[in-house]
Amino acid sequence: MTALPDLRPSRWAPLAALLTTSVLLTACGSGDDGSGAASGPAKSGGTLTFAVGSDSGCVDPQQVGSNDTIYSVRQIVDSLTDQDPKTGKIVPWLARSWDVSADATTFTFHLRSGVTFSDGSKLTAQVVKDNFDAVPRLGALGTLAEGYLSGVKSTTVVDPLTVKVAFRQPNAQFLQATSTHSLGIESSASVEKTPQQKCSDGVVGSGPFVLKQYVQNQSVTLTRRTGYDWGSALWSKKGEAYLDRLVFKVVPEAGVRAGSLRSGQVDAISSVGKANEAALKGGQVTLVSRANPGVVFGLGLNNARPLLKDVKVRRAILAAVDRKQIADTVFPTGTRPATSVLAHTTPDYTDLSTDLAFAAAKAKSLLNEAGWQTGSDGIRTKGGSRLALTINWFPNAATNQPALELVQQQLKAVAIDVVLKQLPVTQFATTLQSGDFDVVWANVTRADPDILRSSFSTRLANFYRLPAGSLDTALSAQAATADPAERGRLVAQAQQLIVRNAYNVPVVELQTQLGVSNKVHDLEFDSGSRVQLHDTWIG
Amino acid sequence: MRRYVVRRLAQAVGVLWAAYTVSFLVLDFLPGDPVSAMAGAGMDSGQPDPAQLARLRHEYGFDKPVLVQYAEYLGRAVRGDFGDAVSTGRPVTATLADALPQTLQLTGAALLLAVVLGGGLAVVATYTSRRWLRQLLLSLPPLGVSVPTFWVGLLLVEAFSFELRWFPAFGNDGLRGLVLPALTLAVPTGAQVAQVLAKSLLTALDQPYVETARAKGAGRWRVHLRHALRNASLPALTVVGLLVGQLIAGSVVVETVFSRDGLGRVTAAAVTTQDIPLVQGVVVFGALIFVATNLLVDLVYPLLDPRIVVAPDRRAGFA
Amino acid sequence: MSQSLVDDQAEAGLGPGRPVGDGSPAERGRPVGIRRVLSFLIRRPGLLLSAAVLVLVVLAAFRPDLFTSQDPLKGVPAQNFRGPSGSHWFGTDELGRDVFSRVVHGAQLSLRATLIAVLVAFVTGALLGVVAGFVGRWVDDVLMRFVDVLLSIPALFLSLALVTALGYGTVKVAVAVGIAGVASFARVARAEVLRVRQAVFVEASRSCGARWYSVLGRHVLPNAAGPVIVLATLDFGSSILAVSALSFLGYGAPPPAPEWGTLISDGRNYLANAWWLTALPGLAIAATVLAANRVARALDGEWARQR
């Protein structure tokens, strides 16, 4: 998801140009397609075994937000549009074409005919309407999809293959949103189920693969959809996918994943950290990586907590983190320390590296000013309370624990005590929603700066309990602005407000790195740095 | 004999009831509030509102006096209903039943390995006349009970999976995938089998009937196997219940190490998410396995050892 | 796991091969000559080594600075994943921390937890056993049935249920392991109390009109203590295993605390590139448990037999 909507007017052109240059596509191996040396023509058949690190407890693409699960559920559904990971251009998929009103409030999609879901039902405008009508009711887990459709006025069926989505205000990000897995189209029968049923039983989609079996915390098995013939315009193979079966196995330990890939027990693995690079390099494995756009990995502060209400404390934390050390020690080679709350591959990213420079002395003096004095146990106290924070984290990437242990050391150096508390991945959404946390270690991948509004606007979920203020104005205004230059200015302003008030402590950009066996060819990243497996083959 | 069977059955049921009670006491007097946890875990719920909490509390009976709750829960448990797992909303019994076959496969294979390897070691160690061999063999069981199973598992993975590539490092696939986890689980159990059997073999070899058999001209190997082993294995049989319970519990660690699906991993996940009904189900199930195995052993024992007509309570620990 | 030694415990409870019944109580109380201890040890190099290992581990638990001067919590990130060498005996971990120092400092957490576990099991178990054995009648029945029930639940499951109820942390894990070990102590203590109570000299002193507490304090407890102490030594080994298994599963202290089980669990993420992160801390656990068991066996059998 590396770009903005492909709105017809040419005023978007400068932005598109900016994007093409800013899309980072690092490949540590021989290429960005995950294949080794070319070995003959592509052939059909076979099973791809993909080891992922976690299971988010849900196999509904509209609700899932964790990469390890998106890898599998993405294959079940098609989206209205697709986005070219190289250019950021929006291209046809289930929609042959679309029209966007000049003020970006109305989006009309012309659907492809002859598309069927794996339960036999047909794709019609009514099905799309059913999906978009149901999304706002998804609740806790579906916040991504919900956010994309926030402010929707109505979805109307124009004719059996034409559907019109209207918003109350201009909604610049919506076209790009239709390319995401979160707005993947499910059959009407699936839409009628409760969110919880969709999570545990899975959904029926029109995608190149069909969910065969889901065993929680264990595996997701998909089989090829026979008769599939409506792939994205980006895919090179027409018709059905090459592979017969996809098996995603949950293997929580990065070391076991790496060893299993090296010894040939699995064909691909997710989340390769720096530690395992050396062991995987050479041999029959290629490492492929791609920087994720969106909100970077960082400390999601609960701004309503008494300790964190004080901007000086928050800014001290911001200054006490040595981002470069963390990026260099733990994350894949080439990972960048955060230089804003947005990753540098996100449109309208602004470089705030001077605000995010490591400055322990500044952190100490800020804390002293705020009245926190170092006590006998080496931790600061003020009025009898200790400067102690609990960081909740979720084992959805192997890099989380070592990164946070470094954060813990760095904050200890300015006499802030940090307790690390691991929670199951399945509790991510509920933790944020409950508000019962000091700090959460999190990121959000999205190729549109509107993700700032989803994450930090007090008018939406406001998980981080920010106070209402000028940030809201900027965030709402950028979403309603159809003028790219004006939008860029507002997004930059929002980033500055977030960083200078230290509502959030950006730490490091996420760079997705996969390990892929050399016998696997054409395993492609999509625009959101997740994988597309329709074109993938084994030979 | 019939009276003995009836009495043992009654005892078994009594122990199960008490195990349920103990688990109820431990888990239902939690400092936390199980209902808030449930409301949080329900994926379709938004911010849990007080009315919803009250409704849940009512639904689960938490608004009733503890004794009433206990009686209701016990009544349901007797019918095999342990409620629904909080994290998934599926019935506990079904969750356990789904996970059980994988774990039975694992523990069955481990028990087999333990008996064959541990028993073989004991027989060879007591038979051989080479002092160094005997000492070497007899030094293995103390080692086996001293090494952490998770460590053994990881070393096996490194050696046989990553380096030699003979067996997969994780998962539930087929017989090859069973080898390393079963071996890991069998190490402490096999060591105990070896210890018990070696000891009773040595005792048996001192018995008069062995002398008699030898005097009658039976070969050494024959005496060892036919006479001594047969008698020595009876006391070893009495610890089987204990071993099976240990194996089932050991699956928690081994299934975690090998990322295998099964009861153990379900248990570990249940503890992590504080899934009380599920943990309770696991505890009672563990007791059930232990009690059932012991019952079986006790009922089979008199058939194997004709000297015993009505067996006293011989089992270790049931003084 | 805590139950891996139950067999030995069962043996201690059952009696065969157990020396306690041999010597007369008077002889057991006799002070032991240093020279005899030494000569006993010298003929058993393995035992000597075990004793030395235990002493070192206990010393490490209380004075870790005697063994290493490196910081267990803070390392040099640039020097991560160094293999074992002269400057880092056990290598360095993913953040460049010295693994040997982490193991040594980990002894503090893990051994403390183990001691708490043994203490909980010992005190609670012995109390139950002594009361049951000394009071007898229905009290004995009720207590021992309760102990039977505890025994019927596999120890690890019982510990896990307690962890679910109590929450995570070193001390909570220790208590959970301790409670799971109560039953075997109760059994052994009761059996000993019964045995001693029926002994001639106790009967005699009772018939002489001694008060029950003086009989208990002067005769029964000192004479019943032996096997219980042996069991405590055995339980020490199995408790280390149980505590580290629970911390391996992630129920111990949160990072960066270097509990032994946690060290191995964290090392799993680097199994493919840094074998020492799992292998060497595991070796420390195995050596400690082996040493404790060897000493327990000596206390239990060999020493008594030699006398």
TrEMBL record, chain A:
It comes from Streptomyces fuscichromogenes. One of its GO terms (biological process) is peptide transport. One of its GO terms (molecular function) is peptide transmembrane transporter activity. It is found in: Cell envelope. GO terms for cellular component: ATP-binding cassette (ABC) transporter complex; cell envelope; periplasmic space. InterPro entries: Peptide/Ni-bd, SBP_5, SBP_5_dom. Keywords: Signal, Transport. The lineage of its organism: Bacteria, Bacillati, Actinomycetota, Actinomycetes, Kitasatosporales. Belongs to the bacterial solute-binding protein 5 family. This is Peptide ABC transporter permease.
UniProtKB/TrEMBL annotation, chain B:
GO terms for biological process: transmembrane transport. Keywords: Cell membrane, Membrane, Transmembrane, Transmembrane helix, Transport. Belongs to the binding-protein-dependent transport system permease family. The keyword Nucleus does not apply. Its main location: membrane. It is found in: Cell membrane. It is a multi-pass membrane protein. CDD domains: TM_PBP2 (cd06261). This is Peptide ABC transporter permease. It comes from the Bacteria. Residues 100-301 form the ABC transmembrane type-1 domain. PROSITE patterns: ABC_TM1. SUPFAM superfamilies: MetI-like. Coiled coil: none annotated. GO terms for cellular component: plasma membrane. The chain crosses the membrane at residues 12-30, 104-124, 136-157, 177-198, 234-258, 278-297. Pfam families: BPD_transp_1, BPD_transp_1_N.
From TrEMBL, chain C:
Residues 111-296 form the ABC transmembrane type-1 domain. The lineage of its organism: Bacteria, Bacillati, Actinomycetota, Actinomycetes, Kitasatosporales. GO terms for cellular component: plasma membrane. Belongs to the binding-protein-dependent transport system permease family. Residues 1-28 are annotated as: Disordered. It comes from the Bacteria. It is found in: Cell membrane. This is ABC transporter permease. Keywords: Cell membrane, Membrane, Transmembrane, Transmembrane helix, Transport. It is a multi-pass membrane protein. InterPro entries: BP-dependent_transpt_permease (IPR050366), MetI-like (IPR000515), MetI-like_sf (IPR035906). GO terms for biological process: transmembrane transport. The chain crosses the membrane at residues 45-62, 113-135, 147-167, 173-189, 228-253, 273-292. Its main location: membrane.
